[in-house]
Amino acid sequence: MSRYFLVTLQKRFYNSVLTKEIILEERLYYLKGAFL
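The structure corresponding to this sequence follows.
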């Protein structure tokens, strides 16, 4: 039970970090496109 809970927490944290990185990359591409 506790192990399963920890695994789900790790997956959620990992997924949130990935989505944040993707959002940051999209913003950078958008800014580059706006300036160029």
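The chain has one helix and no strands.
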